[in-house]
Every structure is written in C-alpha cells, then in structure tokens.
Amino acid sequence: MLPRVFLSLLFLLGCSTTPPRLASDAEIAAAEAAPLSEYAINGRWNEPFEPFNVIGNIYYVGTAGVSSFLITTPQGHFLLDGILPQSAPQIISNIAALGFDVRDVRYLLNSHAHIDHAGGLAGLQRASGATLVASAADKPVLEAGDIGYGPSAGMAFPPVRVDRVIGDGESLSLGGVTLTAHLTPGHTAGCTSWSMPAVGADGARHTAFFHCSATVAGQALVPESYPGMVEAFRATFAVVRRIEADVFLANHDNFFALQEKHARRRAGDANAFVVPGELRSFNARMEAAFEEELARQVETGR
After folding, report:
1. Do 166 and 172 touch, CB atoms closer than 8 A?
2. pLDDT band for position 17 (50/70/90)?
3. pTM score, whole prediction
4. 3-class SS shares of the chain: helix, strand, coil, % to 5
5. Angle formed by the axes of helices 121-128 and 88-97, nearest 10°
6. In contact, 42 and 160? CB cutoff 8 Å
C-alpha cells in the first residue's frame, strides 16, 4: 500500500489503548426501533426483499437497496454486512426463511464502516455470537459507531466489537470454504472487498467478488476527507483491474443490477449472476467517475 495511505491508517487508529464502549442491549433495541432517515427511505435501504440463492452456497439476505450476503458451509456460515440498525431483524428473518439459523453464523464481516452497511452489526453480533472481522482502518470507526467524515458523519450506529483485524490478502476458512480479503480503500480508509470460489448449478467453477465500494458518494476530495484518500482510490482501481472474477456482487442493488438478475434467477436462469467482464467494466466506470469528480473539485475548490 502507498506510504500516505499507511500514514492515514496511523492517523485514524491513533495510539489509545482504551477499550471501546460497546452498545448495550437497550441501545441496540432503541436503534432498531428508531424511525428511518430520509436517506434510508429514498434509497430503499430497509425495504424488504425476497432472500434467494445467488449461486452455489452464496445467498442474498439483504434489502431492496442494500446488500447482505450469507455464505453457508457445513460447519457454520459467513455473513457479510449488517445494513442499518433497523435491518438486523429482517436479515435474521431472511436467513431463517432460507432454512438457516443466524446462531450458526461463525464469521460476521463488514465491507465498510458506513451506517447503511455497519449499522446492524451490533444486533447481528448479539444474535449470532459470531466473530466480527474488519480491517484495521475501519475498526476504530466500527467501535465508535460514527465514521466522523463524509456524508454519513454524525449518523451514529450501535458500536460493535471487532474481534479480529484482517489484512490484505489474508483469508478466513470454514467448512471447506475460503474467503480472501482485499483491502480496497477510498470510499472509506478501511474498505474491504472479498473473493471466493463458487460452483454453479451446472458444476462449472466461478469466482465471486464482493465489492466494497468505489464511489466518492459526495465526500470531499479537495481537501481530502482523510489523509491519502485520492491515492487510496487510485491504488484500489489498479488492484481491482488485476482481479479475475465472473460473479460480481456489490453493496447496493443498482451497482450490480440486483433486480434484473434476481428476476432472471427466479425464471430459471441458474447462472443469472455469472457475467464475465462485469467487474472490470464496473471498475472502469467508477475510475472515470472518480477522476471526473476530482477534476471538478480541484477546479471549484470543492
């Protein structure tokens, strides 16, 4: 990783050894019962969506607007992202509707520490007892329950305990399934994508890539929202260009045509989510959009 990005991680992590203040059961319950924000309503962040099998042992258990993925194994499961605090009960119900039990989730993963992806983690950790795994740079944000910069600054969520810090290229294995972490900072300093092998209904082998995010999302690049942000985005685009995956899964429905592919999946197309080249084309579009937004902010001073 680039030197300035390392400096940004040290800046964010700080040197405090004070244990994090984690959310109580009462705080989790209050957050789950709280009214939705205008952002959440407009983005359909908590709108119910039918849980379904994506491919192989990968299942969609998220909402209409925000993703959450269950990866099952004979020895327990992985669960990626918790959406909003209000979404945790829905995710648990979606897992049950598919015939699984949230108490069998062994690893709880987070793509990045924004409220629409991390808000429900505390409730899901409490329900499952799972080991929460996140990057070093996003760990202090998750344990504070507020990212502190960008458009979601001030949108607090229940703080959650990070049990294990994952590094770039490190993997988690469970029940014969291995997920590999790819640090893809930019959107947040600790944005983490994941990849894994998947076997289609026809027995063909594929590679699934769970993309963290590559959008600026209204954040300041001039000045940078955190030290090294511009370099982090550019490094991530370079990393993703080298990744070979034919099942592209993203954190929001519009990024990977969830509605359209789900309709094809329901109609009998078992490989609806197998689209060679989709990850590469998405990365190219996001890189072009980033450079355009950076140029605009440089020209206007924001």
Report:
1. yes
2. low
3. 0.93
4. 35, 20, 45
5. 50
6. no
Q: What is d(CA 241, CA 287) in angstroms, rounded to the nearest whole number?
A: 10
Q: How far apart are CA 119 and CA 100, in angstroms?
A: 22
Q: What is the CATH number of domain 3-11+21-300?
A: 3.60.15.10
What pLDDT score was predicted for residue 302?
Answer: 79
Distances, alpha carbon 271 to alpha carbons 102, 223, 257, 262, in Å = 26, 43, 14, 10
* Residues in CB range of 243: below 8 A, 6 or more apart: 182, 195, 209, 279
Contacts with 89 (C-beta within 8 Å, 6 or more apart), sequence order: 32, 123
Q: Give the CA distances from residue 110 to residues 133, 213, 255, in Å, rounded to whole numbers and listed in that order.
A: 7, 12, 18
Q: Are 177 and 216 in contact (CB under 8 A)?
A: no
- Alpha-carbon gap, residue 247 to 98, rounded angstroms: 21
Q: What average pLDDT score do residues 129-137 get?
A: 98
Q: Which residue ranges make up each domain of the chain?
A: 3-11+21-300
